[in-house]
From TrEMBL:
Residues 4-63 form the Glutaredoxin domain. GO terms for biological process: cell redox homeostasis; cellular response to oxidative stress; deoxyribonucleotide biosynthetic process. Signal peptide: none annotated. This is Glutaredoxin.
Amino acid sequence: MANIKIYTKITCPFCHRAKELITSKKISFKEISIDGRSDLREEMIKISGQTTVPQIFINNKHIGGYDDLYALDINGQLDQLLTLPDLIGRPL
């Protein structure tokens, strides 16, 4: 199963849409709310290069924001990504 991490803010409608899309796939994810957390916001910027939310990572690969996630879904690529196991840190 994929390892999914989403940086969010509570007032962000695109964050809600991204979470709904992933939830509709019956996949769990880790939500990292950056509300009032400058340290987490800086972490998000450092690893994504972006200042907007949501920032979505699947198996430690930066996917982008909601529009990028939605485009993957429309193109049939999201389901493939979600079924890949998280191989980071596992012996080959």
